[in-house]
Design a protein that fits this description.
binds (R)-mevalonate, about 20% strand, four-stranded antiparallel beta sheet, alpha+beta, globular, 3-hydroxy-3-methylglutaryl-coenzyme A Reductase, Chain A, domain 2, 10 strands, Alpha-Beta Plaits
């Protein structure tokens, strides 16, 4: 086997990296280099900023940036920016937004904004001594991190509680400091991690100097200090409600009451069955991730947290809920969301900066409401399709377009293909054969064909 490993790759210049990768892994190196370079930003300074976001960069990876207009949330109207590669998602969000804009809009409120971090450590001494020393430890930790927390405190945030958690029953000698934080409009990862690492250093020192701990002649070892992406106390609620009869236009060939009951049952199924819940929640994250990405927040953190929250009672369930009671349809979701509108890439990434401007420069709480609402809208649209027409109808339209683009179909060919496949099953082979045949038969005038 040819050795394609390399040492010192990160020290190569960008051109050298490109050359190496093209030579090693591509059949046509020069063409590959040209293609990768074609995605460089024309403004070298802007490209330098993009390169700075990560390491070993050789080009940019593009995603479509779409807009879902008509989101009415607490009476304000938003055009929601969405960065996503999956067809039908933006269309579905837009359609749900418009639907609910005529039925009172979405409502949202932030229930809490506390984030959590942990210092994991082991202590071989007596746990009673550790507990007794906690008030002093807490005071010392707060003092030792004053240089990091002062600014955050001026903004109304900082360290909230520091709690000692004894987990020795699960793992010998294992304890944690579980710390809660308020990080205002920033996601706060750097702030939290800096504080926690400093806590680790101080705690270690205290084990050697504090009377109660020194006496134990025991060792205290810091295992790790890191924020938790599980933020069940940083939660936003979003909901819609309307009289059942106002759902008249929701289900094709289905009356409003039947639609409401069928929709609510679909949500209950996702509450009961983890197989369905996973797909159901994936649909919610179609909307959430797209806005999170557009605003340069951390979609991996938000996904991880959302899925952990969906399993908080020990079983993985739907994140959304629905009731139909006394003639009223209610559909809602509580979701933990740790996002920021300052710091990170929010201002550095040009599309994130424009996305936040498009949303009216929201603070973190407003952004939480917008993101969760987009998730709920997405879920409404998906489940509405599923319990009425099925999703393939809408998907296939977009799928057809993607295939036609792949086959370099002209606008005229696209129009003819859309009409032809309106009542047929779309597959790559079927579309390719159709285009081939229509070109052979000159069904499409020559001058419409792409060279
Ligand atoms: C597809 O990306 C998302 C859906 O599967 C979600 C769902 O089934 O609820 C349509």
């Amino acid at each position: 086997m040819q050795d394609k490993t390399i040492s010192g790759f990160s020290r190569l210049s960008k051109e050298e990296k490109l050359n190496w990768i093209a030579e090693q892994f591509f059949e046509k190196p020069q063409e590959t280099i040209k293609e990768l370079k074609s995605f460089w930003h024309e403004d070298a300074e802007q490209q330098r900023v993009f390169d700075g976001f990560s390491e070993n960069t050789v080009s940019n990876h593009f995603l479509p940036f779409g807009i879902a207009p008509n989101f009415v949330i607490n009476g304000d109207v938003y055009a929601v920016p969405m960065a996503i590669e999956e067809s039908s998602v933006v269309a579905a969000a837009s359609s749900a937004a418009k639907f609910w804009s005529k039925r009172g809009g979405f409502h949202a409120k932030v229930l809490s904004t506390r984030k959590v971090g942990q210092v994991h450590f082991s202590w071989t001494g007596n746990s009673a001594a550790l507990k007794a020393a906690m008030p002093d430890i807490e005071q010392q930790l707060r003092e030792d991190t004053r240089h990091i927390t002062t600014n955050m405190e001026k903004r109304g945030g900082g360290i909230q509680d520091i709690e000692l958690v004894d987990l020795t029953a699960e793992e010998p000698g294992y304890y944690q400091l579980r710390v809660t934080f308020e990080t205002c409009d920033s996601m706060g990862a750097n702030f939290i991690n800096s504080v926690l690492e400093e806590f680790g250093v101080s705690l270690q020192q205290m084990a050697a100097t504090h009377d109660l701990l020194r006496r134990e002649e025991a060792s205290l070892d810091i295992i790790m200090a890191i924020l938790s992406n599980y933020t069940p106390e940083c939660v936003v609620r979003t909901w819609v409600e309307c009289p059942v009869e106002a759902l008249d236009a929701a289900g094709q060939n289905m009356d409003a009451a039947t639609f409401a009951e069928k929709f609510a049952k679909a949500i209950r199924i996702a509450q009961i069955d983890p197989y369905r819940a996973t797909t159901h929640n994936k649909g919610i994250f179609n909307g959430i991730d797209a806005v999170v990405l557009a605003t340069a927040n951390d979609f991996r953190a938000i996904e991880a947290c959302g899925h952990a929250y969906a399993a908080r009672d020990g079983r993985y369930r739907s994140l959304s809920s629905c009731t139909v009671k006394d003639g009223v349809f209610k559909f809602w979701m509580d979701l933990p969301l740790a996002v920021g509108t300052v710091g990170g890439l929010t201002r550095l990434h040009p599309i994130a900066r424009l996305s936040l401007e498009m949303l009216g420069h929201p603070n973190a709480e407003t952004l939480m409401m917008i993101i969760a609402t987009t998730g709920l809208a997405q879920n409404f649209a998906a489940v509405r399709s599923l319990v009425t027409t099925g999703i393939q109808k809408g998907h296939m339209k977009m799928h057809l377009l993607n295939i036609l683009n792949h086959l370099k179909a002209t606008p005229a060919e696209q129009e003819q293909a859309a009409a032809f496949f309106a009542d047929k099953v779309v597959s790559f082979t079927a579309v390719r054969d159709y285009i081939k045949q229509s070109r052979n038969n000159r069904l499409v005038p020559e001058h419409f064909l792409k060279k």
